[in-house]
Every structure is written in C-alpha cells, then in structure tokens.
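#lab-general

N.A. 3:47 PM
ok so I finally got the sequence cleaned up, no stray characters, all 351 residues accounted for. can someone with queue access submit it? mine expired

B.Y. 3:52 PM
send it over

N.A. 3:53 PM
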Amino acid sequence: MQIGKKSVNFAICTYFITKMQTKQLSVIVPCYNVEGYLPRCVDSLLHQDINAEDYEILLIDDGSTDATVEICDRYAAQYPQVSVIHQANGGQGAARNAGMDRAQGHYIFFVDGDDFVPENRLGALVSTAVSHQLEVLAFHSTDVVEHNEAPALPAFAGKVEKVVSGAQYLSENIMQGPVWWFITKRDWLESLHLRFAEGRKLEDSPFTPDVLLSAERMAQVEDVCYFYVKRGSSTMNATDRNHCMRMLNDFVFSYQSTDAVIAKHRHKMDESALKRLCSRRDSFLYFGIFRALKVGMLKEYYAELKAGGMLPLKALDKREFSGVKWTLLRHLFNCPPLTRFLGTIYTLIHK
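B.Y. 4:20 PM
back already:
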C-alpha cells in the first residue's frame, strides 16, 4: 500500500514538473539563404517581453548554401532560448513541419527568416491568448521594404472585442493567407493532425483556412505584431522558366487544396464565410494567369486550367477584391486568345 502511495506521489510530481518545464511559446523560423535578413529577424525575437526560459526560438536551416548556417549556429551557441535544426533542403513546408515536431511551447508562432517582429509583443500575445482560452489569436502586420527601418508603433494594447469560432470570424473579417498572422495553441493544433504541404511555394494556402475553420475559440487584436519584408529577390518574384512552371502548378494546387478545405468545413460556414473562402480559392487562378502572362507561359497554364475544369473564372468577392478592374480582368482572362495576345505584347515590350 505504501509503495502505491509513493508511485502516485511520484506521478503527481512528474506531472507538475513536466507542466512547469513546458515553454509558453515556440517560435518556428524556417531559414533558407537569408544571411542578409536573419540577424534582424532573430534579434527582434530576442528583444521581447518574455523570459528566456519561457520560450524557444527554433531556427530550421533548410539546407542553406550561404552564411545562414553559421548565423544559426552562432545564435544557438549564444542564447539558451535559441536552438537550430539543420536539414536537407525541402522547402518552407518541410521546415515548418520539422519545427512543429520539435516545438514544446504552449503556443506556436511561425516567423519567416527574412521578416521580423516588433519588440515586446510575444509575451503580451501569449498572455492575451491564455487569458481568453484561445486556440487562435490573430493580429495585424505591416509591410517594410527590404533594408528600410520599421515604422514606430504604439505600445501593445491587446484589446479583444469578442471570442468567436473561426467560421464566424471568416464570415465577418478578411482572412489573411500567410500563416504568420496568428499564434496557435500547440496541443490543439497537434490534435488536428494538420501538416504543411511539402515541396510547394504556397504551402500555407490550405493550412491557414483549415486551422481557422477548425477553431472554436478565436479572437483578434488590432495591434501590429509582424513586419513583412518586401524583397525584390524573393522566390515569389523569380522569373526562371522552370521555377515559374512550378509556381504556376502551385497556384493550381492552392486552388484544389483550398477547395478540399471548403468541402471539409462547408457545414460550419454561413453564406458570407463561404463566399469569402470560395473567392480566396478562385483568386489563385487569377494570380496564376498574371504570373503566366508576365513570363510568357499562358498557353501552358490555360491548358492546365481547362484540363482541370477550372474555367471559366468566377467573379471574386467584392468585399476583398473591389473595383471595376477585377470585373474587367475576369472578362479578359475568360478570353484566352485575347489574354495570350496581350501577353505577347507584354513580352515584346519587356524584352
């Protein structure tokens, strides 16, 4: 009987020690050839309102071929809250998945290695999420042109107007696509068994709406908590033909995978939320045609859209895609011969 009591006491102590050792936050940072940006990113994550022992910064070196490798190792050696995982190049999705597998924090925050965050935000975000028992807490971001200084921001206010389901949030608000505009409760996220698509450039296109529509408790603060760096050399802006073909395929993948998310969560959404998400799904085809026109690959792209039954293009939600230009573009893009003619003119002008 006495042994049983000791076993119970040991189990209780182990439980509480484990709970005490859990980090409040895991920041997952995929890094691939970002030597010119990573120091500002990591420095911003270190200048925060949270104790070093209460959070972790996971730098996922995704097979970098520049000084990113040494930068990651240097920060990991210098700061106890920073650790690094070196892996073969697999893309953003594979790097984020590796980070999720390693994360110990109560909440997860994804940050791209070329972006950065305002100071004194991380602890406040976690406190807000915990106090409202949230699965997802969204916030605002602002763009910064590469190598420019970030704008001055007011102190974190953290005002939560209401807690809603993800479906209700989507009904009432514009959904941002990137995965870095919210923090997520880790054990809840793990229970969903969601993973990022690997080998894709738009790996978060199905992940973000799937997370949101799975949430029963979600809120948003009006604070800016992320600086998105606009880079001229971003992989999203590359013009190499092989890269562009993969990019065009990824636009189709994003359409199809978002369509699968819509089917999965259709029963939760009212007409407003459904219209928003269908519009987001369809917008990938518009952006794909834009890209195909710029790189002279309209014929191949239209053939893929036609084969997949994705034509004609549907009208986009005017709440997010306002203005006559989107109506005109829909009529233009639904006439492939005319679009290809304009693409030829564009190519001749930019030779």
